[in-house]
Amino acid sequence: MSGRRRGLRADLLRVVLTTLSLPYACGSNLRNWLYNQGLRPVLRADVPVVSIGNLTLGGTGKTPAVEYVARFYCALGIPPAILSRGYGVSQGPNDEAKMLRELLPDVPHLQGPNRYLLAQQAVSQFGSRVLILDDGFQHRRLQRDLDIVTLDATNPCGYGRIFPRGMLRESLDGLKRADIIWLTRCDLIEADALEKLQFQIGQGFPDKPLVTSRHRPLHLLRLPNEPQGEGLVTEIVALAELRNRPVAAFCGIGNPEAFGGTLSGLGCELIAFRRFPDHHRYSKEDVDSLRRWASCLPEDVRIVTTHKDLVKLACPDLAGRPLYALRVALEILSGQDVLEDRLKGVVQ
């Protein structure tokens, strides 16, 4: 997808992926056209709806943005609810649901394919006064009052091509529907590259407010040795635990390179890194494999994963070695005033 791999085989695979992307692009374009022309119904909830989504497959750091917006409304005394598609929900709450439940225990999080029905449930059952549509940019059936699109600064355009040739869910023209463009992980690219990216977005979409942010590491998390409830974290460990130490990491997220970059920025030595697919559900075989992997690591190594992966694994150690998760929070670098003014405007 990235075009970095060279050779005849890679070129042929790119031709195949390009061919396969044509029906995907046609389907996406047709669906958007039907909504734009009013030929598909759009349903309005009884309370305001804020959508937080993206243009690409994989991780853009959207979940911390959802947390930020939910906490913002809670601070205003306006009870929110989070609505999401909930991929894999038939097998129980997915990783994002578990993590958000832990971070925002007082905010209802409803999952299901029919988000209009979820909206009705949130209002009638929980008394929610604003709804946050998680990963909602392509879910156009539910009317929204504010459309926020997150772009990962490390790969904002998904290699510039529609899936499966690239990572785009729809063409970049889809950003015309956005009310706010929110760049995440801005600290993981060089300052001149960030400046160029901001200029390009400003040139292409001059009427769209731009917010920039980074994922600020807060501390490490550990699960208790004795189970005390699913996903319950009882121990907070300072980031100094990793400084000047060897670290082995693994994750099942959309942008593993960004996670690795964040760890390296903490002053540790990343000596081993394992990648699993995005939203990976760890099987017994996976856990056994991780334990064997951990048992072969040096004695002084620290094993670290993401918060999402920790709540899925729900184990305090691997091969007798403590398992840590990196807790991050979204920090706004620019555009906070316009973002919060627009969020307030939705509920006034």
Poorly predicted regions are none
Helix content: 25-40%
* Distance between the first and last residues' Cα: 44 Å
Number of domains: 2
Number of helical runs?
9
Strand runs, count? 13
Rg calc: 21 Å
Tell me about the largest β-sheet. 13 strands, mixed
Tell me the β content. 15-25%
CATH top level label of the largest domain: Alpha Beta
Kindly report the average pLDDT value. 92
CATH homologous superfamily annotation of the largest domain: P-loop containing nucleotide triphosphate hydrolases
CATH architecture of the largest domain: 3-Layer(aba) Sandwich
Shape descriptor reads: globular
CATH topology of the largest domain: Rossmann fold
Order of helices and strands: HEHEHEHEEEHEEEHEHEHEEH
| Sheet/helix structural class | alpha/beta
What does this structure look like?
With 348 residues, the protein is α/β, with parallel strands linked by helices. It folds into two domains: 49-215 and 331-347, 3-Layer(aba) Sandwich (Rossmann fold); 217-328, no CATH class. It is built from nine helices and 13 strands. Strands 1, 2, 3, 4, 5, 6, 7, 8, 9, 10, 11, 12 and 13 form a 13-stranded mixed beta sheet that branches. Strand 9 (246-251), helix 6 and strand 10 (269-275) form a beta-alpha-beta unit. The radius of gyration is 21 Å and the shape is globular.
Gist of the model:
By secondary structure, the chain is of the alpha/beta class. The protein has helices at residues 8-36, 62-75, 95-103, 115-126, 191-204, 256-264, 284-295, 307-313, 336-347, and strands at 49-54, 80-84, 109-111, 130-134, 146-152, 180-184, 210-222, 235-237, 246-251, 269-275, 302-306, 317-318, 321-334.
